[in-house]
Fold this sequence. Notes:
This protein is an alpha+beta fold.
Amino acid sequence: MIPTFKSSCSSKDLLAAIQDKGGAIVEGLAPVNLMDEIATDLDPYFDGTPLGEGYFVGTRTKRMGALFVKAPAAQELVMNPLVLDVAQAVLGPNCSRFQLNLTEAIQIWPGEPEQILHRDDELFPFAHTEIECMINAIWAYSDFTEINGATRIVPGSHKEELDRDPPEDRICQAVMPRGSVLLYLGSAVHSGGANKSDQPRTALTMSYNLGYLRQAENQYLAVPPEVAKTLPKDLQELIGYSIHAPRLGWLECQDPGDLLNSDTTLGRGAKDFLPQEIENQLAERHAVLVQNYSDVSGRP
């Protein structure tokens, strides 16, 4: 069974359920009028998007990214405070900042079979460990039902070795109404469900990962500088227009977020971008080196 909460739940209770089972549902977290606004923008793009050409992405499934460009209101989903609180609790202890991994709209059409069970953290070439590198939010753009392809998840699988063929009675479906969200760890075994209905099932996936890992979706093409300039500062930083200490992501030895709205990179000295603890150690060491130099050279 997938733990299910109301939108008024606390991040503490939600986090505890996710850490225990690998995922949890929050019903009605996004208001219907927000989902309507997003649908108004995205539906024309779905009409022009062809079906997939691979067995993993699905040959009866439509997928597209760059959602902030196609549907600006989707920004509210990725910046949802409850979701960000949980992401910070899961990822924050293991990085100086977490980042947006991808935005993806997924529309499963009738006739699509179940997707192979997998872990999203299989993207990265290291063994599954106790350190979580990713957490995902699947928002129900349409109702998720047992017959239209609701996401399948194996509760507790984040604590086990990978098994792509678990007993059927361990697999649960994320049945939830439109505007609800399934939050699950990148280590949780899951997949898209089979659509046995006569209507497509649509989801919006917002994924977050450790700030020093490669993003699945190239955010700097999905959200180029001319678009990023129009976004709130906190969203710019989440996308990746920011520094991950120590010294990852700089431009001209500057914070790209500071340069995003600047006309020039000239006249700015290089910066360290180090964690405060290391900065303090360097300052102490530098003072000793300067004193030693003064003693040897006789210079003040």
